Amino acid sequence: KNHSLNGYRKSCWYEEEIEENLRWCFALNSILHTGASQFQDIALLDTKPFGKALVIDGKLQSAETDEFIYHESLVHPALLYHPNPKTLFIMGGGEGSTAREILRHRTVEKVSMCDIDEEVVDFCRSYLVVNREAFCDPRLELIINDARAELESRKECFDVIIGDLADPIEGGPCYKLYTKSFYEYTVKPRLTRNGIFVTQAGPAGIFSHTEVFSCIYNTLKQVFKYVVPYSAHIPSFADTWGWVMASDVPFCLSAEEFDLRMKQRIKGENRYLDGKTFASASTLSKAVRTSLENETQVYTEGAARFIYGHGRQNQD
Amino acid sequence: KNHSLNGYRKSCWYEEEIEENLRWCFALNSILHTGASQFQDIALLDTKPFGKALVIDGKLQSAETDEFIYHESLVHPALLYHPNPKTLFIMGGGEGSTAREILRHRTVEKVSMCDIDEEVVDFCRSYLVVNREAFCDPRLELIINDARAELESRKECFDVIIGDLADPIEGGPCYKLYTKSFYEYTVKPRLTRNGIFVTQAGPAGIFSHTEVFSCIYNTLKQVFKYVVPYSAHIPSFADTWGWVMASDVPFCLSAEEFDLRMKQRIKGENRYLDGKTFASASTLSKAVRTSLENETQVYTEGAARFIYGHGRQNQD
Amino acid sequence: KNHSLNGYRKSCWYEEEIEENLRWCFALNSILHTGASQFQDIALLDTKPFGKALVIDGKLQSAETDEFIYHESLVHPALLYHPNPKTLFIMGGGEGSTAREILRHRTVEKVSMCDIDEEVVDFCRSYLVVNREAFCDPRLELIINDARAELESRKECFDVIIGDLADPIEGGPCYKLYTKSFYEYTVKPRLTRNGIFVTQAGPAGIFSHTEVFSCIYNTLKQVFKYVVPYSAHIPSFADTWGWVMASDVPFCLSAEEFDLRMKQRIKGENRYLDGKTFASASTLSKAVRTSLENETQVYTEGAARFIYGHGRQNQD
Amino acid sequence: KNHSLNGYRKSCWYEEEIEENLRWCFALNSILHTGASQFQDIALLDTKPFGKALVIDGKLQSAETDEFIYHESLVHPALLYHPNPKTLFIMGGGEGSTAREILRHRTVEKVSMCDIDEEVVDFCRSYLVVNREAFCDPRLELIINDARAELESRKECFDVIIGDLADPIEGGPCYKLYTKSFYEYTVKPRLTRNGIFVTQAGPAGIFSHTEVFSCIYNTLKQVFKYVVPYSAHIPSFADTWGWVMASDVPFCLSAEEFDLRMKQRIKGENRYLDGKTFASASTLSKAVRTSLENETQVYTEGAARFIYGHGRQNQD
Predict the structure, then answer these.
(1) Chain C positions in Cβ-Cβ contact with residue D52 (cut-off 8 Å)
(2) Active site (annotated) includes residue D164
(3) Which range is least confidently modeled, B161-175, B260-274, C250-264, D204-218?
(4) Which of A2, A8, A33, A59 to mutate to test the interface with B (most CBs of B within 10 A)?
(5) Structural domain contains residue C316
(6) Residue B144's Cα: distance from chain center in Å?
(7) Are B169 and B102 in a shared domain?
(8) Which end of chain D has fewer beta carbons closer than 10 Å to its terminal beta carbon, N or C?
């Protein structure tokens, strides 16, 4: 009977084309929920190798068994390097896991999470049991809006701003939220004096880091004095992932101090990240390190530049 | 938006290894229900190319869009060749579709359907909407038992006995229900004088017919005077399928008489089968016809033969 | 060791999307040859389930183990119904198998095979061992040209014209070779008095026949007095395939006469086709037969009509 | 035309079941060579995402585009930590890439490479162009033998012994070459006084490290005073991979000293590894580090233990 159960379970597969010539396939237990918003399609799958998996527009967003690597890496370094993070702003993050990790910090007083897609947020709030407590935390303010419009409409500043958005594909929905002008004129003005910005930065594998990671790093280098790229292998993504942390104050923390702050400030135990892990994650391999230092491309917003030029032309 | 919907929908696939080196894959909308009995695993999938699909132990049993080809072919020829079929016995058939087609015949007074797996029957009764009416028909008697034990325990005879069982794989669950001795000593004695036996007979493609179709045909030829093999291509099976009909009275019906009886006896319209279709289906291609005539293997039950030998030895 | 061989061999697969939501996959032994012409990509694969397979632009064209079904069905009925076929014209057919089957007929004196793609012809001549003899037959005249241009440039008539072309997809390379005007003004004038035209006619399965089969049938009905559609299941295509034969003289041949002519005229034995097989193949199932009779669409050549209209306008 | 080329190229796939429920698939350009030895099946594939790929028994061994990560990691740390490595012994390594990396070290005088499978060695020597020079280097001694038998037959000692073998699957071909008794009684006696042993140690991902990595680490800890586990993400393996280095002298080298020795001793430039990279690679994440420290299993050779017991019983 066991045999036949396995037989059956292997009949249904989730398949993702990671690149045009590369496929990654998970055996399925079931398709738990499906939905669609005005922007995207959403599905919650129960996969055999990685548990419940959130899939948006046919792309895996996060999987139950290893999303902790992504979310601990995105959230804790920036919050631990900051001397006393109280106010946070999340661009995107509708899944709720980024907020969940932030809310584990005892210093945090207010988290503003701004996602453009209400249906995704509702879907995750309904089905992702692990984030239910976070969605109910009174410190969480949920805003449905474009992150740029929201940040531009705000008067207050934040201790940490976190980018938890889709990759900057040209013409894609989030491209404008990775440009030099956005960082310079929208994000930086909304950071407090010791403020830290951190963003997910796409695949960071030995080949894949040139897609967007190196360019996000180089773009942030144009705007902030101190920029730290780091990465971690996420099994369900079949790749190493990257993040970039940026500030105008230097990042100074030994592995021991990192661990001490973790202990003092964070409720519960991290599963993935500690001081040594971050030391390793922020020491890139020769190949990736060299490639990042040699990157020359900067994300700019063609349209914005055109408008300025147009403005100048009008002045003539 | 449409684009992304398609993108998502193609992420999940049902995959069946038809042979070790041949795969057949359907894009999935959802996995509707899954269950397990003491004998087998059951699933109802919603597939994009073939609608709802019943899968048992990782093998497609029938698909919404084309199961009518299988079930019309299994049921109607035998019932139409019979002068006045009133009492029927189905070996297997737990899905309910065979009963559904039988119950469309106005002559039918009693259908005894005998399936060994109560959970499969309950699963199909619950989820296969198209067979709900059949499951409620007062002419249907549902028995949970081994078909051989049941037939052997019966005193009455049936006008038509229908085999709707898994293929005769040696060591498989149904092998014994395809043997010469079973046909001779169990089935034939339970047929009325004009009685007809018909059975599904596995794949009947130009290569695949040697797996079991030719041997079932040859085995029935040892027991009945008149034996008619026929076949039809079933798209969701990615193959041509076979059935064999057998009796001790000759099968004499022109296509026109076939159509006339269809009209007189069957409620509603067939979608696939009529007189001409059956004429075509029962005229096999040169390759398959020759191969069937040259088949020499007969399914026998090793154990039974051993007992006879043993008996004779005892007489010495 | 055997085990590991199988293990290895199942690592490489040929995969074809038969429809957007339906995949058909063969385990590969090797990729024998690949090439590209100005029109298309060509590959010869060694597959485990179906032997050597010719693939053009990612679509299976024919497979070693069952191409005889397609080519016997395409060639022999038309040539057998014709009283004495001497001169033949093949539109397409670069693979060489259609010529091979024609050249088995003792009556044949000249076969003109006109394919547009020289590289495909060269590729097949080099690698398809089974057709080598045919390519060397002195009765074969090979022309590299557009079949329409070639037919229009010819003065002589042919006893049988055979269409062995890609399906009539709108905007596709062969659409114009399936239109009413092409049949009426180009094909028919090049047929002798008893001449027969036959064409492959795409998938003819219970669902797939509406793609092009029914419409090719209906288009030919507008041009010829007698039109015979027929079909056969081809395992490697995962579908039933269709052909349509058309003439202005009736098709009258009993299965016995068919078999007799086969014996008299064809060298060697057919594997698939004989009189009974053709009787069955040309008796379509109720579903397909009804659908063909109800078809109203006729393939017309938009561009051609526009040109005529334009011409008349110019005359005004 | 480009479009169709892509269309074609995506028709053929290499597929590996990384685990029972996880598949990893590469589009294929071609199957370059296949072969079989008395032990295993061998294939060289040309894949689109990772170039030429060596596959043994259906498992990817190394891929052209990223094998440098594996082989630089396996070879250089041990050779750089050693004060002056002259004599080397490779267990396995028939592919030739491990020898190639070793032979880049100017200090090296003799490399004994001992692989059990002559056909694999011949296959790689013939087809892996990148290792041709190494196979011809006069410092390379190639032995076809079981690595244990060979080591036990040797009298001399080696500065570095390198294990480049298949994973220790119980009952698998290499299990005995990962046991405590093998390390203690066969490997260690054949190391010079400052000698270093290093072995590939299987997958080292956040979940997969418990398969064999943690146990190889713990087994080596029972035999050597100083043991260093380290890991790196290898894209074509869809996982992070592990190695363990062991010695009775401590491993003391700063990243700068590591880089300096690299420069002095190694011909050409490393692509992946330098001092910082190794510092990162040998600092495991919290999850893996904790799990390694808590590992209690030791690989032992059941048979050997039984013989000892049997001996003692005989003494009674």
Answers:
(1) none
(2) yes
(3) B161-175
(4) A8
(5) no
(6) 18
(7) yes
(8) C
Select which of A164, A167, A239, A274 is catalytic.
A164
Pick the residue of A10, A16, A280, A292 with the most D CBs within 10 A to test the interface with D by mutation: A280
Looking at beta carbons, which residues of chain B come within 8 Å of A34? 8, 30
CATH code of the domain containing D194: 3.40.50.150
Q: Which range, A32-36, B186-190, C33-37, has the best average confidence (pLDDT)?
A: B186-190
Q: What does the alpha-carbon distance between residue B223 and residue B182 come to, in Å, rounded to a whole number?
A: 10
Distance CA B61, CA B164 (A): 11
What residues of B are labeled active site? 164
Q: What ipTM describes this predicted complex?
A: 0.89
Q: Residue B23 is nearest to which of C9, C25, C205, comparing CB atoms?
A: C25
> Inter-chain contact D279–A276, Cβ cutoff 8 Å?
no
Under an 8 A CB cutoff, do C206 and B233 touch?
A: yes
Rounded-to-integer distance, Cα A65 and Cα B18, Å: 33
**How high does pLDDT run on average in chain C?**
91
Out of B10, B12, B15, closest to residue A31 by CB: B12
CA-nearest residue to C66 within chain B is B206
A53 and A179 share one domain: no
- Indicate whether A198 pLDDT > 70: yes
Once rounded to an integer, what is the mean pLDDT over residues C248-252? 96
pLDDT in tens, D247-293: 999 999 999 999 999 999 999 999 999 999 999 999 999 999 999 99
Q: Do chains C and A touch (3 or more CB pairs under 8 A)?
A: no
Here the tokens at position B44 are: 């109802």
Are residues A20 and D26, on separate chains, in Cβ contact within 8 Å? no
Nearest CA in chain C to D56: C8
- Could you write out the DSSP letters of every residue in A110-161? EEEEEES-HHHHHHHHHH-GGGHHHHH-TTEEEEES-HHHHHHH--S-EEEE
Establish if A313 belongs to a structural domain.
Answer: no
Number of domains making up chain C: 2
Q: Which subunits count as partners of chain C given 3+ CB pairs below 8 Å?
A: B, D
| pLDDT digits 0-9 by tens, B2-41 | 333 334 446 999 999 998 899 999 999 999 998 888 888 8
Cα of C51 to nearest chain B Cα, Å: 11
User: What's the pLDDT band for D6 if we cut at 50, 70, 90?
Assistant: very low
Q: Considering D45, D62, D79, which residue would you say is the last residue of a domain?
A: D62
Does residue D313 fall inside a structural domain? Answer: no
Shortest Cα distance from D29 to chain C (angstroms)? 9
Kindly give the residue spans of alpha helices, DSSP state H, lying in C10-52. Answer: none
